[in-house]
Design a protein that fits this description.
This protein is α/β, with parallel strands linked by helices. 45% of the residues lie in helices and 14% in strands. The protein is built from eight helices and seven strands, in the order E-H-E-H-E-H-E-H-E-H-E-H-E-H-H. Strands 3-2-1-4-5-6-7 form a seven-stranded parallel β-sheet, with helices on both faces. Helix 1 packs across helix 6. The termini are far apart.
């Protein structure tokens, strides 16, 4: 993927990693469309970056995903990049009374929505790139966020298959693999000690310019290259297992 002169849709593009991608893609002379559930957040981004195009959309609702695609195909039929970034993270325990309800929310947003969007947007004749945001937790899960970790493992597996499936259509599939970053994902303050989003964005854009299709940073790079035994040790270290 060339990093400039694209028309890009970034889901969840108003906050966190999505906002970091939005800012950098605008700097690289791209036309950027962002969608999200909160109109107020979208308006804040539009105020900072007047060129950004916004669309309110709740991706947990199938009909709104279809409406998003229909709007793009009608108003922005030259869109060539889809970035599946939107996701939610729940810190939950299996014996929580609302465990299953929260788990379903994660599965819908982190798995069902991006898969649905992929199936819709490959119908765009102009599409040449899909970028899926997974996680270093796809390799070694964190038990305090068990369903989130599992959704990212699923999404990584799907992304690997998608890359193969879309070769014949000449659609490039990129996996963006962040570690924990200083965002509000999962709740305010949970990741304050993590690296800033800006450092991550700079690192993955350098890899993008090199033509790489698996973009990693810090601990996610380590995990992506780790052996099965190393991943087992990493899991044990995260959970205080000797």
């Amino acid at each position: 993927m060339k990093p400039n002169n694209n028309k890009i849709l970034i889901t969840g593009g108003a906050t966190g990693i999505g906002l970091g991608l939005t800012e950098r893609f605008i700097r690289e002379n791209n036309t950027v469309i962002i969608c999200g559930r909160r109109e107020s957040a979208l308006k804040e981004v539009a105020a900072r970056f007047p060129s950004v195009i916004t669309r309110v959309c709740d991706l947990s609702i199938p009909s709104e995903r279809e409406e998003l695609y229909n709007w793009i195909s009608e108003k922005h039929s030259d869109l060539n990049v889809l970035v599946n970034n939107a996701g939610i993270q729940q810190w939950i325990a299996i014996d929580d009374t609302d465990f299953f309800e929260k788990a379903k929310e994660e599965i819908i947003t982190n798995i069902e929505a991006p898969i649905h969007l992929c199936s819709l947007f490959v119908q765009l004749k102009s599409l040449n790139t899909i970028a899926n945001v997974t996680s270093g937790l796809a390799f070694a899960p964190f038990a305090k966020i068990p369903v989130y970790s599992a959704t990212k493992a699923f999404f990584r597996s799907f992304t690997l298959s998608l890359r193969h499936l879309l070769k014949s259509k000449n659609i490039e599939v990129i996996e963006i693999i962040p570690p924990a970053l200083n965002t509000d994902l999962g709740g305010k303050g949970l990741h304050n000690a993590a690296p800033p989003v800006s450092d991550f964005i700079e690192a993955i854009f350098e890899q993008l310019k090199q033509g790489k299709t698996e973009l990693t940073f810090a601990s996610s790079e380590t995990r992506a290259k780790a052996s099965a035994e190393e991943l087992k040790n990493y899991f044990n270290q995260m959970h205080g297992v000797n």
